[in-house]
């Protein structure tokens, strides 16, 4: 993010998601039980891809708006043959 006053740069700020230790542990346990781990997020593809790589997820779906999430879950269930 950049804070500008007119054309003058006043401040530059970088934001990042922090992955909690508990998240890594939970995903590891689920994968140990042979459960696929997926992420459905409203975040952009770059952030989602980074998180999915770091968490070693099986798949992710990014840029899904709140009103689209129910439909996306149904789509994902068809992909992974769950009802």
Descriptive report:
This protein is α+β, with helices and mostly antiparallel strands. The chain has helices at 21-32, 45-55, 69-79, and strands at residues 2-5, 8-12, 38-40, 59-61. It contains three helices and four strands. The strands form two sheets. The protein has a two-stranded antiparallel ribbon. A two-stranded parallel sheet has the order 3-4. The relative contact order is 0.14.
List the keywords.
83 residues; Rossmann fold; flat; 4 strands; 18% strand; alpha+beta
Write a brief structural summary.
The chain has one domain: 3-Layer(aba) Sandwich (Rossmann fold), CATH 3.40.50.1000. Helices cover 41% and strands 18% of the residues.
CATH architecture: 3-Layer(aba) Sandwich
Poorly predicted sequence stretches spanning 5 or more consecutive residues: none
How much helicity do the residues have? 40-55%
Mean of residue pLDDT values: 91
Count every helix, treating DSSP H or I runs of 4 or more residues as helices.
Answer: 3
Oligomer: single chain
Q: Please state the overall shape, judged from the principal axes of the Cα atoms.
A: flat
Query: How many domains comprise the coordinates?
Result: 1
What strand line-up does the widest sheet have?
1-2
- In sequence order, what are the helices and strands, one letter per element? EEHEHEH
Could you describe the largest sheet, including whether it forms a barrel?
2 strands, antiparallel
Head-to-tail CA distance between termini: 42 Å
Beta-strand portion reads 15-25%
- For this structure, what is the CATH homologous superfamily? HAD superfamily/HAD-like
Give the class-level CATH name. Alpha Beta
The radius of gyration computed from the alpha-carbon positions, rounded to a whole number of angstroms, is 17 Å
| Helix vs. strand class | alpha+beta
Topology, number of strands? 4
């Amino acid at each position: 993010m950049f804070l500008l006053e007119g054309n003058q740069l006043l401040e530059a700020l970088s934001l990042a998601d922090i992955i909690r230790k508990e998240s890594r542990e939970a995903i590891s346990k689920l994968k140990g039980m042979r459960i696929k781990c997926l992420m459905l997020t409203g975040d952009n593809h770059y952030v989602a891809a980074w998180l999915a790589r770091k968490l070693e997820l099986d798949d992710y779906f990014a840029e899904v708006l709140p009103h689209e999430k129910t439909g996306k879950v149904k789509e994902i269930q068809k992909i992974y043959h769950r009802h």
